[in-house]
Specification:
single chain, 209 residues, mainly beta, 2% helix, 24% strand
């Protein structure tokens, strides 16, 4: 056993531990360069109190410490490590303002997307899902492959954009209230099926398209 005190910067080598033990294999930078991958230890994760799990990926830079009396064979990943290779931060471009940021597809009538403030917003871009919580109080979750989005901007405008099917199922009542107009437009057929339909309106105008 080699004893190590304090934290070290490390790089993740592998993430599938024997027995699915939810660990990551790490190499301490500047100290374990001459050690073969097979001899590198597997690090446990320091989890939040609700036991949420955010996995690393090979190549990720992390901070590790050795809480078991400095035992180098039992490291613990305590967080991600920052880096600025070539002057570009190793965070999502939406967070740093450096690099090519995601641009949502233009949709007529859609509310403005949240306004991003580099270094001030919470941004997670992982596995094709971009999650943003801005300093101005907006939130969005986007599937970057096609632009499917659920979110709201700083003005409280809600945006639900689906590039696939949309399904809503409720075992109780569904209520829709608005202080303005409601518009429904479909390129195909609109169907209603109910035990009873009740309509109440000041006037009904019907025109053929």
């Amino acid at each position: 056993m080699h004893k190590i005190d304090g934290k070290r910067r490390a790089v993740v080598i592998a993430t599938v531990a024997e027995g699915n033990k939810m660990k990551a294999q790490i190499r301490v930078l500047g100290e374990w360069e001459g050690i073969g991958d097979d001899a590198l230890p597997w690090a446990e994760y320091l989890l939040p109190v609700d036991r949420a799990f955010v996995p690393t990926k090979p190549g990720d830079l992390v901070w590790v410490e050795f809480p078991y009396n400095g035992d180098s064979r039992r490291p613990m990943i305590v967080g991600a490590a920052q880096d600025w290779a070539g002057g570009v931060p190793n965070v999502a471009p939406e967070a740093s303002g450096v690099g090519e940021q995601y641009s949502p597809p233009a949709k007529e009538g859609a509310p403005p997307a949240p306004a991003l403030t580099p270094t001030a917003d919470m941004v997670l871009n992982r596995d094709g899902v971009l999650i943003i919580r801005t300093a101005g109080g907006a939130y969005s979750m986007t599937r970057t492959a096609d632009g499917t989005t659920i979110g709201f901007n700083e003005a409280g405008d809600v945006n639900i954009l689906s590039e696939g099917q949309t399904y809503v199922n409720a075992t109780g009542n569904v209520t829709l209230l608005t202080g303005g107009d409601v518009s429904i437009e479909a390129t195909g057929k609109i169907s209603f099926k109910a035990a009873e339909i009740e309509l109440a309106a000041g006037s009904i105008n019907m025109t053929q398209a």
